[in-house]
Amino acid sequence: MMIKKRLSLSLVILSAIVLLASQGFAAPQSPYPAATGTSAAKNKQAWEERWNQVVLEGKKEKTVTIYMAPSPDFQRAITQAFKQKYDIDLNFIVGRGAALAEKIFAERRAGLYLGDVVIQGNTVQLLIFKPADVLQKLEPYLILPDAANPKVWLGEKLPFLDKDRTIMYFFAGLRNYVARNTELVNEAELKSLDDLLNPKWKGQIVLFDPRIPGSGSGWFSLVYGLLGPEKGAQYMRQFIKQEPVISRDDRVIVEGLARGKYKVAVGFVEGLFNQFKRNGAPIDMVRTAEGNFLAPSMGDVSILKNAPHPNASTVFFNWLLTREGQTTAAKSAGTPSARNDVPLTGIEPSCVLPPGEKFYLESEEDVLAKNELMARAKEIFGPLMK
After folding, report:
1. Dihedral over Cα of 117, 120, 123, 124: its sign
2. Are 337 and 161 a contacting pair, CB within 8 Å?
């Protein structure tokens, strides 16, 4: 995996009114580029009128169905805040990305269009949902100037994850793939990737399955990116001698670490991890000396084609990207927002990018290369699954 030293997103000039195919839903007009004088007033009037119309229709639709990984505090907080502001309910279908994708695809093969929005991580969005051609282009859905203003986002660019602009990221925290039980592992014992190879951790590590899209494959890709293909493969062959317990259940991983069943965890959903930590679990993330990168974690949002609640989805999508929505989302998930005007109150300190430190963000090309890396992971970790 190649880790790029700067964001490779382009500053977009949002499109004018586009007619979407889904249920005759008219796409909103973009508030950008900003105009001056009389044209500015007309522009403001246009987006405000469109927004009021979408909100009115969204309230009639009553709900937004969102497919995402488990993050109870995040889901509870944004549900309450969004309901209070717009009187629209959020309905969450929770699970791992691959399992949710299978559910959505099976529904659509049966002619059922039940989901509106997907919130997942880079790998799941780019390797599963986008290739299936189920995602809408997002530019037409941006209405609120506060959400669509490039200047408030990291790097002063709208945070599109892909060149086709079907996915946007809203979190940008330092991604930590390794964690320890603080009652069983001292901070000094686990500071680098090499420390994971210490024989004393044999049988004491739980790992999210690196052979499928998710946090385990993210860690696998990071190691290859940091060490290179040859040394990365050598490292992984040493790592499997530690006999890690491999799981595809985030709760098993985080709860097992919290209860001391495992001393070390590699790969986990940060929202669930942060919830356990806030509730007093003796766990902490480890920032390995070799480096980490800035990542959305589970904070990539997309809108499904033929969404049954297109107006309510548009309201939610815009609200989530506003300063208000991001303040609620970031605090509840314990992960920094990709907006530069959102406070860090309640944010997990290990996820915060230190001032002046360079950030590295995976490109779409980096994520697409994970298919090859997951094939390598199958070769290396396959014997452990027999």
Report:
1. negative
2. no
* β-bridge mates for residue 120, sequence order: 300
Asked if the bond preceding 33 is cis, omega within 30° of 0, the reply is yes
Strands (E), the chain: 63-68, 89-94, 117-120, 168-169, 173-174, 178-181, 205-208, 245-247, 264-266, 283-286, 294-295, 300-303
Q: Residue 146 in contact with residue 273, Cβ under 8 Å? A: no
The answer to whether 152 and 146 have CB atoms below 8 angstroms apart is: yes
The CA distance from 7 to 161, in Å, is 9
Among 236, 243, 269, residue whose Cα is nearest residue 254: 269
Token pair of 357, please? 């430190």
Distance CA 137, CA 149 (A): 18
Q: How far apart are CA 76 and CA 72, in angstroms?
A: 6
pTM above threshold 0.85:
no
Residue 65 is encoded by which pair of tokens? 């169905």
* pLDDT tens, residue by residue, 86-114: 999 999 999 888 889 999 999 999 999 99
The sign of the CA dihedral 328, 334, 338, 339 is positive
287 by Cβ neighbours in 10 Å (0-12 / 13-18 / 19+) ranks as middle
Least trusted range by pLDDT, from 63-67, 302-306, 307-311, 341-345: 341-345
How many helices and strands in the chain, by DSSP H and E? Answer: 13, 12
